[in-house]
From TrEMBL:
The lineage of its organism: Eukaryota, Fungi, Dikarya, Ascomycota, Pezizomycotina. One of its GO terms (molecular function) is N-acetylglucosamine-6-sulfatase activity. It comes from the Eukaryota. This is Sulfatase N-terminal domain-containing protein. Belongs to the sulfatase family. SUPFAM superfamilies: Alkaline phosphatase-like.
Length: 499
């Protein structure tokens, strides 16, 4: 059993994130590749590992946990034809002129051949930069559409971003800075379409890499003895809700991302309904490797049988810091510059929020509380469109539903370990409420009304506890209520009686 410590990395950039922070928090000595080595795996990595893992700090210390590695390094990571890489801790090498996704793929094939030559099981990661935007250092960081290989330049010539309801809408919804965005003009729309075509072309190199990886495994006879996990670390919005290309929001475009798993015991072509997040990946991989970890996640159900028994219905979404528009037209205002990142002079600072997605038989919703204290609610059922005043679940009205969502978010914003997987248990220790629908029972109405609510006193760029409002929820004590005594709820910190 491996115990993951509570780690405070709440941004992808300094001072709240990035490689130096990863090192300071001890993560470099206590994360997935190291746990896998601990149970006999050989581990390999090609591509991007962390932000701010750079030509300056790549060896102080060297990234832990890999038997062999070839890492892309900042400040060149997102330059498609100007990569700098460090192989197994060696001095950074320039690959000027080479196409980065093809380059990191070649290195991954080399590691795969190496791994297949040993008797031990192996864990290999390839993290190509496609379809990230191209970011060059030219004074400050300058961002533009991704570059693609010449051989893919003829593809997707006619492609357009789907013109759905959320595409550059006439009437803008949302809260905080999103609500203020002006409608995009035809120049920006044309740029966005071409930007999206460039993303699709850049992903053709990734597709070819998947194909070749599978072929190498097939030729070695190991394909059916290997799990292949294909995913991404974020989604993307581009012209939806009038936004410049980017990814720091809670919208479906940003958070609803693909996860494809192939391997022994997994049905081909099956589309899972399980509600999961990347917090679950480490547990999933450790379980596939025959071990386990104690983390804030739980193994993703990879078989139909386990999927049917899966009870998780929520995903926690949290973001601190800047919304960073990408591309040549992205400009949201003048937030304070973050250390070493001039691109943020175009970013907006009030982009700190907590959100939850909750998905059950009768609901599919998104609820958010922003650092401005504004709240946002979306019904994501396909037949959505009713007003909040008409929204109901199991006959309970919107006014009854929101306090439950507030309480769920209260638990999830500061949960640790399995509490993050089974948050209702913190509110209802007796274990008789395990879902939103259970919590909607009218006998809990008063209980949910007295709960402290998520709020912020300031829009911070990372987790600052003092700016995040109340931390503890009230717990429901079933016995008391059934005996008709004054309803007694318990604060996690002490007792308090409400009548
Ligand atoms: C990979 O690294 C681990 C941890 O240092 C070590 O025990 C193992 O022998 C290495 N494997 C190979 C093939 O060198
Ligand atoms: C369209 O919008 C962009 C971004 O705001 C601006 O730079 C450009 O001048 C506008 N083009 C026209 C034709 O109005
Ligand atoms: C954030 O919101 C506050 C209050 O609404 C506002 O005064 C401030 O200018 C905003 N900051 C940025 C960087 O947008
Ligand atoms: C948000 O609400 C809390 C609680 O009512 C209040 O203390 C805080 O000042 C508010 N924050 C902002 C940014 O208005």
């Amino acid at each position: 059993m491996i115990v993951v410590l509570s780690l405070q990395v709440t941004d992808v950039w300094a001072p709240y994130g990035g490689y130096p922070k990863i090192v300071r928090e001890g993560i470099n000595e206590n994360y997935l590749p190291i746990w896998l080595q601990g149970i006999g795996y050989n581990t390999y990595y090609s591509g991007k590992l962390w932000n701010q893992h750079s030509i300056e700090n790549y060896n102080s210390p060297y990234a832990g946990g890999f038997n062999q590695s070839d890492f892309l390094l900042d400040p060149f990571t997102y330059e498609y034809r100007n990569a700098w890489m460090t192989r197994n801790g060696g001095p950074p090498v320039s690959y000027a002129g080479q196409y980065s996704p093809d380059l990191t793929a070649e290195k991954a094939y080399g590691f795969l051949e190496e791994a297949l030559g040993h008797d031990e099981p192996f864990f290999l990661v390839h993290a190509p930069i496609a379809s990230h935007g191209d970011i060059k250092l030219a004074g400050g960081f300058v961002s533009d559409q991704p570059q693609y290989a010449e051989r893919h330049a003829h593809l997707f010539k006619e492609y357009q971003i789907p013109r759905g309801d959320d595409f550059n809408p006439e009437v803008q919804g949302g809260v905080s800075w999103v609500r203020e965005l002006p409608r995009l003009n035809d120049t920006v729309i044309a740029y966005s379409d071409e930007y999206q075509r460039a993303r699709l072309r850049s992903l053709q190199s990734v597709d070819e890499m998947v194909d070749k990886t599978v072929k190498i495994l097939e030729e070695s006879g190991q394909l059916d003895n290997t799990y292949i996990i294909y995913t991404t670390d974020n989604g993307y919005h581009i012209a939806q809700h009038r936004m410049a290309p980017g990814k720091e929001c809670g919208f479906e475009t940003d958070v609803h991302i693909p996860l494809v798993v192939r391997g022994p015991g997994i049905a081909a072509g099956h589309i899972s309904k399980a509600v999961t997040s990347h917090t679950d990946l480490a547990s999933t991989i450790m379980e596939l490797a025959g071990s386990s970890i104690d983390s804030d996640g739980t193994p993703i159900p990879l078989t139909a049988e386990r999927e049917n028994n899966a009870r998780v219905e929520h995903v926690t979404i949290e973001y601190w810091g800047l919304a960073i528009p990408e591309g040549i037209y992205g400009y949201y205002g003048d937030a304070n510059m973050t250390e070493g990142m001039n691109i943020s002079s175009h970013a907006v600072g009030n982009n700190t929020y907590k959100a939850i997605r909750v998905i059950g038989e009768e609901y599919n919703l998104y609820y958010a509380v922003w650092c401005t204290n504004e709240t946002e609610f979306y019904d994501l059922n396909p037949d959505y469109g009713h007003l909040a005043s008409q929204y109901a679940i199991a006959g309970r009205s919107f006014d009854n539903i929101v306090p439950r969502l507030d309480a769920l978010m209260m638990v999830l914003k500061s949960c640790k370990g399995q509490e993050c997987v089974r948050p209702w248990g913190t509110l209802h220790p007796a274990g008789d409420v395990v879902s939103l629908i259970d919590s909607l029972d009218s006998r809990y109405d008063v209980f949910y009304q007295v709960q402290p609510k998520v709020s912020f006193s300031k829009c911070e760029l990372g987790y600052i506890r003092e700016s995040e409002g109340p931390q503890d929820v009230v717990q429901f004590e079933k016995d008391m209520q059934e005996q008709g005594a004054p309803v007694k709820f318990r604060y996690q910190g002490g007792f308090s009686i409400w009548t």
